[in-house]
Amino acid sequence: MSSSINTIYANWASICASSTDDASSILANAQTKAETYFADMDSAKDGNGQFEKEFAMLLAAMEGPISSSKSTNLSKVIALRYFYGGLQGINSKNHSDQKFSLKFAKAFSKMLLSLCGPIIDSEYNLDHDISEEGNADIGTDDVRDSSMLCVSALLETPLYSDKDDSSISERIIFRVRLAQKALIKRCASLEDCDDDEDDDFDEDDKIYMQGYSNGAPTEEEGDMLSGLSLLPRAKRSLCFSVLESCLTGIQSEKNTKSIITQFCSVHLVKFCEFSATCLIGETDPRCLMQMLHLLSNIQILLCPLIEESNKKAQIGTNDVQVKGFPHTSIFDAVAIYYPIRFQPPKNDPHGITKEGLQKAVMSIFTFASDLMFDPTTSGPDRDRINEANMTILATGLFLERLSPPKPYDPFGDDNESVDESEISTVIDRLEALEDLSCLLQLEQKSEVSTALKKLNTTITKEMSNVLYRCHDDAATNVASAKSEEEKGDWRKLADNCRSFITKVANRWENLMNQSPSDDNLKSCWEIFVKDRIVDLVGLISSSPQSSKGRMGVGYLAAFAAAGTEKTLRLCIDGCMPRLLALMSENIQSSDETRDYEKTSTVIYSASVLFSSSQISVESMSKLGINIHPHPMQLYAEDIIEILCQTIDGIENENLNPIEIASIKALESILPSLPKSIINDTSMIKDTIQFIAKLLMSSNTSQLSKVEYEWKSSCANLLGLTIGNAVHGASQMESGPYTPILQVDDGIKTFVNSILLPKMIESCSEFKSDEESKIRYDWIVLNAACQTNHSDAIHSVISSLFNSLISSLQRVKAGNNQNDIDKSIATAKALSKLLGNENEQVIATFHSKNRESNLFNILSSSPNTSDRNEEAMEGMNCLLLPEDRERLRLEVKSATNLSLSILPSMLIVFRNGNDYSEELEWCISRLSQALPPLSDWDSVELCTIFPVLSSILKSDMKLRTDQLQTLQSYTSDIIDYALGTENPPGARSAAATSVYYIIVGHEKRADACLGIQVLKAQLCPLISTNMVTTSSLDLSERILNVSDAMNLVAGIGLACSQRGGSSAITLDEIARYFVLIACEGAVKAPTLGVDAPLDCCINDGGNHIPTTTIAAKALGSMLTNSSNPFVKQRLAHKILPVILSSTVNQNSTLSQTKIGILFCASYIINCLKLKAIGKENIDVLISILVNGLEIIIQHVYSNDCDKNETLDGDLIPLLLSALVKLFNETVLAVISHIGSIVPSLLFILITKKDVTDAPINLLSLQILSSLASSGNDAIIHFCKTYKMTVVQHLSESLDHPSYEVRRAAMETANEWSLLG
Which segments of the protein form a coiled coil according to its record (predicted)? Predict the structure, then answer.
């Protein structure tokens, strides 16, 4: 024995003799020492056999003592940890090529297996499952677990054997047998063990193979494995790790690329079945994930080995039983976990998710070996070699979940009950269809998608039937769904079914083309495609108008859209002649005998099939496949002729279903109708002209639903015609499938010279708001742009833009009302097209606008020199009265025109684009127009500010020089925003510009731009207007204070958005507002209010409601802030002021009392109650309830006139806060319900105007919450005062508002049912 091994043995002996040290540290130290020793061995110096020799000496030294019944558990565990550490050292990457001999590994494993099983005391014949005295944390289970660790490490250790031919197979057999034996012994109890049990690998192989034919595991193994479920999760995971280590060891053997023997193959099949059995019954998601990964790796590693071995074996020999890879066993073990229902708990540290488990399960189901035998193989050997492959098994599982429930049979067994949990929901079916698509590789390219080859005719027939029934059931449920969400899910399922069969039909025919001699593929295609199409054709021909017939049309269209010639021709040639015959028969019949429903359905069906055929033809054309003749060659002209004759025969607006179906069919067919299959194109041109004439001459007011539907289809058809014809006019070449609308000269000439100009001209016609609700000219041009042909979009947008520019230029030249109306009408039409968010449309508009700046024209003065001079002089110059009036009207007209057109145009400024040119224009014009020195400067600013604010809102990144320039204008922009003489829209845009300028202020600056403008402008302005010596009248002062405070609130929001140094500014603004609102006085040197400012000064009985204005401004900050941390910061600043201000409050409704109520209500409504705190909530509730009583006492009871501040703002806000409190923390309100309920009833009996409906509804909602509360104290109160409340509620049943009457009735019913 070497000196190092002696040292290790001596350490072990000394440790075993001592029991004072901590067991965990002892075990770790033992494992580390052995691992370090073997890892540091020099393989070049010591030689290959030295590892086995050294380890054998260690084993020989310790085997005797640890096998003795007198050895302690601790000594055994320490020895096993030495072994484990040694194996880990040998298996380290430095010695990955060093091996044990197979003979030594078998000997070592025999000792380990003896320790894996129950440890029997020979004296009492008992398993010592108790800990020993002095080592309370070490028991026999620890010995068994340490043995399993050693087995796991041994399974990963590289081995060698003397033989050359079958050595690899012998080593693989050893590994799989060792893994199975170790697992069985670890799971066994004392009752499962025999006294004379032997662990000899060579002796039990014969017995092992004899039991193989009965399946896996054997009865004995099954009894032992039943103990697996009784082990704790960590110990089960250790057992599964042994199987993983076995697979790792086999992987190292597989790298030699040798073919294993048939005998070894049978052992591997047994191992696969054994591993699958271990999964059954597993409930812990961590172990489940571990085993799913193991089974997936087994498929990847062992399936090719087994199948390659079977492929090379001599079929028919009796020496060994040939068995294929056990797909069925693995499937049966995994299938019980599908579908995954697991939902991880919150804050799960293990990272196991539903998606992860689903992915692991699907990786097993989607496995397919390249060496898998053809499922169509015939002969006696197929059943022995090929079990059902995983693709077939998983397909059956998914179809079971996808299949709709069986229809109710009234004559069936009444006692038969159906478990509702087993009925698949629409979501289940959607997921099953997605999984089936993944299994069959339908999302992959057809070149690599071969999963369909694995299916046989039986499963194909089942798949065809299930999909058809599922589509039928989904389409039926779309009509009967109770909610829009449910209807959307059913519609999605029907769409996905059609998409699925389209892909399957495409893949199957492509596979048939690649393997024309494959009879299985041909049979499957005939079952799935041909047989189904034949059934559908018969159904559609007999009753197309039935629900089954309509669903069949959609299903058949899905086949037609598969993009393969054989399937397409089968659909068209089978169905189209019958549909055409039905169309001709009914069209030629008299009105009395004509079946309108059937004929219109046939027309729809023909158009759907035609569109689907075009999808297939175009998809094949993109692949370079040009089919000839065209599938619709024999039918297209007859169909078009029937449709055109039907439409041309319309004489009035009393439309029938056939005429509506005809125009919809043309709308679907014409855009993709190839000219090559139409001989006479004149009828199409004539029909388009007829439709255009009929549409533009018709009345658009008071249309029925049928008329609107028909005219919308006409407009869409004309738009598609324009889009394609304009596109065709710019194309130099055309192909065989180019649409007729793009190549026919007559149609293109009509569109470009007549139809498009007429539509552009129609868009410039001004109509009233009622008439503009339905503008078919807008629909036409919008449909033209939706074709996404860039030249068509350019033509439409350019024509409209040029028309708008021309109208505006005429307005500037003559200020004619007709030109003004045309400009507004054209702008609305252009806005309609821009609002559809078509990128090409918006890009074309910007391109045209940069050529002829629309905004510059809007902001320019009239084009006469004398008017320009007058404009420079302004309104204050000495002008004759008639000249002054004319100039005033021109300024007013220009302002109104700008404000009328701009909202329609500003939607073009969207996020993510560059508007540098437009921004440069705004900045350059601001430098000339600010401050406004003339009336035409103000007109120009009415255009500049809306454009500037829209650009800034688009999140375009500004250059530093641009931002600095805008910041230099901030003071003038604020003055404009506060100017009451300026248009409200422009003022609002200016305020928005200030917001974004402050947000974009350089964050590295020491000072916040917001604090600068507050101190220099806004706060002094507010202070000035609150002084009674101001020369302005009271209404102007109130307006000035209100506008200024609202702008201060906007700046506060900008500071919260900017963060950094601006956070202090936000705090100061919040403090400023809350002091004014709650105390009526403020001093804020930081904001420029150096001396205390009294905000509640009466001016001859009149006063500025400063507290209310400040409270509303503060509320706007809380309401409009989307950041919860900002809201919490604001609450932290303002809550102390609110709470302290209530100390000296009396029962009068003072200005400060109103301000406090506003602030308290905003706090409750805008913040989460947890963020406010329970103690603060209690105080705020008292404030609100007391305030509600004071309002009732001093206002409503005195029959005061309607107070907008109270009725329109404060009371609804206060009641909303109470509603929130009742819903979220009813216990805090219990003590106040005696005061709240009388106040609510007083509101209900006194506020009976329609405008008071919000107050009434909120009051009723609170009363309803009380009646439905589960709190005993509240219910007792409600029962006590039930009659009084119901009596007062009866008065609200006569309220003029329907919503109030309904809510009052429901609330009265709830109170009446109490007790």
Answer: none
Predicted confidence at residue 129, as pLDDT, reads 47
Higher pLDDT pick, 1284 / 649: 1284
Helix (H, G, I), strand (E, B) or coil at 479: helix
| Tens digits of residue pLDDT in 696-727 | 776 666 677 888 888 889 999 999 999 998 88
Burial 250-288 (b: 16+ CB within 10 A, else e): bebbbeeeeebbbbbbbbbbbbbbbbbbbbeebeebebb
Report d(CA 716, CA 723) in Å as an integer.
10
Q: Furthest-apart CA pair in the chain: how many Å? A: 131
Residues of the chain with pLDDT > 70, as a percent, come to 82
Nearest to 30 by CA among 68, 83, 71: 83
Angle among Cα 25, 29, 33 to the nearest 5 degrees reads: 175
Report CA-CA distances (Å) from 851 to 809, 832, 1154, 1207, 1212: 15, 22, 56, 53, 52
Which residues touch 1203 (CB under 8 Å, ≥6 apart)?
Answer: 1195
Q: Provide the 3-class DSSP secondary structure of residue 337.
A: coil
Long-range contacts of 131-134 (CB under 8 A, 24+ apart): 131/73, 132/72, 132/73, 132/74, 134/19
Residues paired with 1084 in a beta bridge? 1089
Q: Which residues contact 797 (CB under 8 A, 6 or more apart)?
A: 785, 830, 833, 841, 844, 845, 848
| Mean pLDDT of the 1206-1216 span | 81
CA distance 978 to 989: 12
Angle at 766 between CA 764 and CA 769, to 5 degrees: 130
Tokens of 1029: 């010596």
Beta strands 1098-1099 and 1102-1103 are antiparallel
Tokens of 710: 């028909």
Which residues, in sequence order, are CB contacts of 176 under 8 Å at separation 6+? 246, 250, 267, 268, 270, 271
Q: Contact, 245 vs 152, CB < 8 A?
A: yes
Band of residue 910 on the pLDDT scale cut at 50, 70, 90: confident
Pairing assessment for the beta strands 159-160 and 1081-1084 based on DSSP bridges:
unpaired
Question: What pTM value is reported for the model?
Answer: 0.76
Residue 70: other Cβ atoms inside 10 A: 6
- The upper half-sphere exposure of residue 49, i.e. CA atoms within 13 Å in the direction of its Cβ, equals 1
Structure tokens at 81: 């940890």
What integer is the mean pLDDT of 960-970?
88
pLDDT digit string, tens, across residues 393-442 = 999 999 999 988 765 555 555 444 545 555 678 999 999 999 999 999 88
The answer, yes or no, to whether residue 503 has pLDDT greater than 80, is yes
Q: For 986-1010, what is the mean pLDDT?
A: 80
Average pLDDT over residues 980-1002: 87
Distance of alpha carbon 236 from alpha carbon 1305, whole angstroms: 63
DSSP labels, 1011-1066 = HHHIIIIIHHHHHHHTSTT-SS-HHHHHHHHHHHHHHHHHHHHHHHHH-TTHHHHH
Residue 1260 structure tokens? 């009723």
CA-nearest of 557, 552, 550 to 535 is 552
pLDDT at 572: 92
Nearest one of 259, 262, 294 to 278, comparing CA atoms: 294
> Residue 473: which pLDDT band, with cuts at 50, 70 and 90?
very high
Which of 852, 833, 735, 713 minimizes the C-alpha distance to 784? 833
CA dihedral (268, 273, 277, 280) in degrees, to 10, reads 120
Residue type at position 643: L
Query: H or E element: which one contains 86?
Result: helix 73-90
Question: What distances in angstroms separate CA 308 from CA 378, 393, 645, 1275, 1309, one per listed residue?
Answer: 19, 22, 68, 78, 78
Q: What per-residue confidence (pLDDT) applies to 185?
A: 87
